[in-house]
């Protein structure tokens, strides 16, 4: 099970990097979402996937005597989901605002700082 999930994580990382390197902002945003999901799945896979007892300590004991699930990866994933969703919403608003101002989502056409008629900026100092 962990080998299959590791393969899925690798595929998600590859697809997300391909989308992030695109010239269109919407594809970049989808790549960022997939990257966040890949990281969450990686943390989940590293936290041992399998049918393990819940992380409870029996009454009268001070330590765990049997194999139990680790609750830390699950807490990290829940926090990461909230942060990645808010980050995606913020980037989506920025991309929409840039599209409203510039009329395109192609990064090559977003050359306000570097107008096309002036040529390339200086390459060395």
How would you summarize what this structure contains?
This protein is mainly alpha-helical and 125 residues long.
Helix coverage percent: 55-70%
Tally the helices. Answer: 3
Say how many strands there are. 0
Radius of gyration: 22 Å
Q: How much of the polypeptide forms β-strand, as a percent range?
A: under 5%
**Uncertain runs with pLDDT below 50, 5 residues or more?**
none
Q: Overall pLDDT, averaged?
A: 86
Distance between the termini: 54 Å
Order of helices and strands: HHH
Principal-axis shape equals elongated
Query: What structural class is derived from the secondary structure elements?
Result: mainly alpha
Largest sheet: none
Please explain how this structure is put together.
The protein is an all-alpha fold and 125 residues long. 58% of the residues lie in helices and 0% in strands. Helix 1 (2-20) packs antiparallel against helix 2 (25-46) and helix 2 runs antiparallel to helix 3. The chain is elongated and about 75 Å long. The model has no long low-confidence stretch (mean pLDDT 86).
Set down the secondary structure blueprint.
Elements: H1 2-20, H2 25-46, H3 71-102
Helix pairs in contact: 1-2, 2-3
Output the keywords:
125 residues, mainly alpha, 58% helix
């Amino acid at each position: 099970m962990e080998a299959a999930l590791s393969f899925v994580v690798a595929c998600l990382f590859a697809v997300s990097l391909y989308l992030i390197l695109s010239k269109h902002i919407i594809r970049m945003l989808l790549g960022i979402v997939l990257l966040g999901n890949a990281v969450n799945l990686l943390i989940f896979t590293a936290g041992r996937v399998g049918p393990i007892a819940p992380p409870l300590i029996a009454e009268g004991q001070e330590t765990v005597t049997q194999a139990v699930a680790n609750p830390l990866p699950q807490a990290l994933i829940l926090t990461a989901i909230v942060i990645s969703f808010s980050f995606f919403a913020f980037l989506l608003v920025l991309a929409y605002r840039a599209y409203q101002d510039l009329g395109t989502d192609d990064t090559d056409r977003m050359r306000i700082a570097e107008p096309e008629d002036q040529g390339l900026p200086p390459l060395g100092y």
